């Protein structure tokens, strides 16, 4: 039941993960980042998503520590995600990358660690490393990012532990319906990055019409659409009022008609790289 920012879904290993979190892609190290993390936690966010390649794990960690100190929110109530970058995919190198991430974040463990991209010939060894970290209790959950159906099928042929998360680009122009159905069949939770298509849909007339009906913003309508589709979402913002606004999506519900209307906007259009044609 999605009631508020602390509402969670249960992953296939029993771990609870918040439905909505803060993403920090392309947010540089510095006070703006620290403040964004603190604002989010102070306003009820419990999930923060970063990655090694973002180059901002230290700032995220500082924001988390300061927020804990100022709010009293315990670390165990927070859900922190990071990802191993393509150049580090391999058994030993992935273990080392994990240690570097937790060190920069200043944490004893991560709640979720992901393989960032499905680099051919490398992700299986990286997954074996994630399984080791998971078995050793260093991370609460493990998963992948940007994996297509065929990547998941290939990985699960050798995986001892099934991925708990597949974080992919998803928004009304890239609904990922087939991938979502596949993940649902195998109890792999889908999480959306670029859930707002990096702002490219804010002037869409159809979405604006729906937003007006509910007296909400287009961003809030899109985020609600994700949630009602059973997709975890991590909108990025550094502006306090946007961080607060993005979280105000638990007091209304889109009708089936609205959901179908938004789904009809799909064009299979990406704003990020194609996982099958990404120059790694």
Automatic annotation (TrEMBL):
<keyword id="KW-0560">Oxidoreductase</keyword>
<protein>
    <submittedName>
        <fullName>Aldo/keto reductase</fullName>
    </submittedName>
</protein>
<feature type="site" description="Lowers pKa of active site Tyr">
    <location>
        <position position="83"/>
    </location>
</feature>
<dbReference type="InterPro" id="IPR044500">
    <property type="entry name" value="AKR5G"/>
</dbReference>
<comment type="similarity">
    <text>Belongs to the aldo/keto reductase family.</text>
</comment>
<feature type="active site" description="Proton donor">
    <location>
        <position position="54"/>
    </location>
</feature>
<dbReference type="GO" id="GO:0016491">
    <property type="term" value="F:oxidoreductase activity"/>
</dbReference>
<dbReference type="InterPro" id="IPR023210">
    <property type="entry name" value="NADP_OxRdtase_dom"/>
</dbReference>
<feature type="binding site">
    <location>
        <position position="116"/>
    </location>
    <ligand>
        <name>substrate</name>
    </ligand>
</feature>
<dbReference type="InterPro" id="IPR020471">
    <property type="entry name" value="AKR"/>
</dbReference>
<feature type="domain" description="NADP-dependent oxidoreductase">
    <location>
        <begin position="32"/>
        <end position="266"/>
    </location>
</feature>
<dbReference type="InterPro" id="IPR036812">
    <property type="entry name" value="NAD(P)_OxRdtase_dom_sf"/>
</dbReference>
<dbReference type="Pfam" id="PF00248">
    <property type="entry name" value="Aldo_ket_red"/>
</dbReference>
<dbReference type="InterPro" id="IPR018170">
    <property type="entry name" value="Aldo/ket_reductase_CS"/>
</dbReference>
